[in-house]
Amino acid sequence: MCSEWPLIPLRDFVDLLAGFAFKSTGYSDGQDDVRLLRGDNIAPGRVRWDGVKRWSRENAVGLERYALEPGDVVLAMDRPWIPAGLKVAQVQAADTPSYLVQRVARIRPASREDCSFLFALLSTPEFESYIQNVTTGTAVPHISAKQILDFEFRLPPAYVRAKVGEIVAALNERITLLRETNTTLEAMAQALFKSWFVDFDPVHARARGEQPAGLAPELAALFPDSFEESALGLVPKGWKYVSLKEATDIFDSKRIPLAGQERAKRKGPYPYYGAAALMDWVDDYIFDGVYLLMGEDGSVADASGYPITQYVWGKIWVNNHAHVLQGRNGISTEHLMLALKGVNIQPFITGAVQAKLSQSNMWRIQFLMPTQSVASAFADLISPMFAKIRANSEQAQTLANLRDTLLPRLISGQLRLPDAEAQLSEVGLCQ
């Protein structure tokens, strides 16, 4: 029984290392250089690399102790908790090589066989509640290494820890595969967009009297065989640059912000989005469909000046810090997203203290409008890709929910191993 398991502090089970103070002046742009794992790179349950900073390998000599390894658990020490959950994750093989940055804790058990159990333990509601209670500071809420190590828990026997580790590994492997598949699908859609609407490959081929590579004759015939001048340079004949407004339906007037205290009283199953990310879950929704969210203020652009966007669907709530968009005039929402991802919006942003992309400035963005036949053909090609992306994301979320509800009960002894295995078999993960 759980009550018979020894009660120990976390310090008796793990080694904790706080990260190194890498200076921003030494950041590198080299794609082959080592990634730096900062608090911003930890989302609840996973590592994410958008907005990644890098460090040259030459300057990393002597910093080997800060190198992360697959299986390591990382926890943000500044703003460790956000409404979406505790910023704790397990490092996967795809996340290495990478180095640990200050104000992030690397937590490693004495036995590598306990890595997945440790991640499960630190993902429990009990640990999350503990961190919330010991967090100090208002401007930047933070925790210390000592506070992390003071957490007490009942240590299950080795066979239970091993089974928990197997379950975590199996679920995480499936979730990672789904996310990697989505990355590949989006990259395929982005490559097709670039070929058609940036490099104009089919038009160039037809202008040379050639059959565009990879296109059926009836599809190739939709493209012109010449270019014409525009205010922004040569464009395929019959295409034109227009205000983004002509390609976009906007639903900002339907947005309703909810303060944190109000959201705390209205917990529910519907996602609540802010300017840059999912923030919470609430008991009602405003929108129902497929939308593109684009940051309006606060988190508006990344370090390179490209817009912060979110591709969302289903029944959702959005606050007033993100523009809510859909494609129009034959432009799909996915086409709109792929186009905006390649636009540097820095010239359209105002505000010295808090960046803002107003609606009027957003409409100054120029959008290349193809013929309706080309826009429709593009939508037909990418629609199945994004349908698969949505299905994969929903499956990954289902598996993450199962992980987050199953494991705390297993760790606490409330759920027997055979019962846990039965639930896993229902989602095709028989142990």
UniProtKB/TrEMBL annotation:
Q: Which UniProt keywords apply?
A: DNA-binding, Endonuclease, Hydrolase, Nuclease, Restriction system
Q: Which InterPro entries match?
A: Restrct_endonuc_typeI_TRD, Restrct_endonuc_typeI_TRD_sf, Type-I_RS_S_subunit
Pfam families associated with the record? Methylase_S
Q: Name one GO biological process term.
A: DNA restriction-modification system
| Type I restriction modification DNA specificity domain mapped to chain residues | 54-186, 236-387
Enumerate the Gene3D superfamilies for this protein.
DNA methylase specificity domains
Spell out the molecular function terms from Gene Ontology: DNA binding; endonuclease activity
Q: Does the keyword Zinc apply?
A: no
Q: Where, by residue number, does the polypeptide cross the bilayer?
A: none
Q: Which family is this sequence assigned to?
A: Belongs to the type-I restriction system S methylase family.
What is the protein's given name?
Answer: Restriction endonuclease subunit S
The organism is Aeromonas veronii
